[in-house]
Write a structure and sequence with these properties.
The protein has a 7-stranded mixed β-sheet with strand order 3-2-1-4-5-9-8, sandwiched between helices. It folds into 2 domains: 166 residues; 189 residues, Vaccinia Virus protein VP39 (Rossmann fold, 3-Layer(aba) Sandwich), CATH 3.40.50. A hairpin with a 2-residue loop joins strand 6 and strand 7. With 391 residues, it is an alpha/beta fold. Helix 1 packs antiparallel against helix 3 and helix 1 packs parallel to helix 4. It binds S-adenosylmethionine. InterPro entries: SAM-dependent_MTases_sf. This is DNA methylase N-4/N-6 domain-containing protein.
Length: 391
């Protein structure tokens, strides 16, 4: 009877115990923390989020450990009950031999049999719940594993923040793989408020891989002057290059940008360059953000835009060793215009092709919701293509 009571109590406790720290909850907490982290630029805030995430991990681990302990106790209890069952089984089979029984033992046996049946029912139920708890525990362990990985990502992010604030961007610009991803633009290069301003780290890498100090670099869509600032930097790895930069509407404060309209006037005569860099408006994406006019690249029809860009690149390939063009696809709801693919079809395969991701923050929550509901992917990268001249 003591065993029965113990089992009833254990079962009741198991039934009542809420399994609150579920894996789903854990995952949503982690993604909320990740989201918050990706939005903050503040180191102490990032650290606080990281600490909270860590605390959640500890809580889940503790809860997993409690369950493990509970399972051990239940396991021991089940073993005891199994022993009892064996004993009752024996009694039951004895009961099958009438010649060895008298009337009083038959009544006792019946009672014992009922007890045995009850124990069997309870132990089956406990076994079922035990399995459920075990499964839940396994998924929490799985979660803890992924949580640890995510914490590492969080840590890397914080390291980046600290690194940039303490040492500047100087040590972390060079890319060795063909995905060039940057947490934020190096503030030393270009004007940060300029529409479509690119991270200067792109130009640092291009100059490093495709030019030497003293070489001429040309930019036909200079915008906020990012390429110029990189070329003028006093570092032979990417700077100390000659630079000629043009734009249809130069910024008043940038006297180093030559006023030139490539649509109206064609490609300027810059002599022979080592590298030409092209960061045109990505067709309609920023239409209206540059000074409006029919010869602005963002105002052209798609056919004319493609023809112009192809013409500019072909022309430059006759006057430079390398021509680099960066362009992101135009996305309007589910309509996706792949400018890079169009250029490759027209000009042939580039010598290098690099993926340059955008930050996810460029999309608003409603963009994400629309994409999910409309079942289309949101574009998250630009193509950087480098063609090599054969003349
Ligand atoms: C994407 S922005 C370049 C941004 C630049 N790389 C930076 O980091 O600041 C494109 C530039 O192309 C210029 N542009 C557009 N149409 C042009 C044209 N027909 N001739 C010359 N420049 C043009 C715009 O004025 C704008 O500055």
């Amino acid at each position: 009877m003591t065993e029965l009571m113990a089992f009833d109590a254990a079962k009741k406790e198991l039934e009542e115990r809420p399994w609150t720290p579920s894996r789903d909850l854990a995952l949503s907490l982690v993604s909320a923390a990740q989201e918050a982290l990706s939005r903050t630029n503040n180191i102490s805030e990032a650290k606080e989020i990281n600490d909270k995430l860590h605390a959640i991990g500890v809580l889940f681990k503790k809860s997993g450990a409690e369950n493990a302990h509970r399972n051990i106790i239940l396991g021991q209890q089940l073993l005891t009950i199994a022993d009892i069952m064996l004993k009752y089984d024996a009694l039951d089979s004895d009961a099958g031999r009438p010649e060895e029984k008298n009337s009083s033992t038959q009544v006792d046996e019946l009672t014992e049999k009922q007890k045995a049946q009850k124990i069997l029912r309870v132990s089956r139920e406990i076994l079922r719940r035990w399995r459920l708890v075990k499964e839940a525990r396994e998924s929490v362990e799985e979660w803890i594993q992924s949580h640890i990985d995510k914490t590492l990502t969080v840590q890397t992010y914080i390291n980046h923040l600290m690194h940039y604030s303490e040492n500047g961007f100087e040590h972390d610009w060079l890319k060795v793989y063909n995905i060039w991803s940057f947490l934020s633009p190096d503030p030393r290069f270009g004007r940060d408020t300029y529409p479509g301003r690119i991270p200067g780290q792109i130009n640092q890498n291009l100059n490093y891989y495709f030019s030497e100090p003293g070489d001429l670099v040309v930019d036909l869509f200079a915008g906020g002057g990012t390429t110029i600032d990189v070329c003028k930097a006093d570092d032979d790895k990417y700077g100390n290059r000659e630079i000629l930069a043009y734009d249809r509407v130069p910024l008043p404060e940038r006297e180093d940008i030559i006023k030139w309209d490539v649509v109206k006037d064609g490609v300027p005569d810059f002599g022979r360059a080592k590298l030409v860099f092209l960061d045109p408006p990505y067709w309609k994406q920023k239409a209206g953000e540059y000074v409006v006019g029919s010869t602005d690249m963002s105002q052209l029809g798609l056919q004319e835009f493609n023809d112009k860009l192809e013409g500019i690149i072909s022309h430059c390939l006759n006057h430079a060793d390398y021509v680099a063009c960066i362009v992101g696809a135009t996305q309007r709801k589910e309509v996706f215009v792949d400018h890079a693919a169009e250029l490759i079809m027209r000009l042939g395969l580039p010598y290098w092709r690099v993926i340059v991701p955008y930050m996810t923050q460029q999309y608003m929550p409603f963009n994400v919701t629309n994409a999910k509901n409309g079942r289309y992917p949101l574009n998250l990268y630009r193509d950087l293509m480098i063609w090599r001249s054969n003349v």
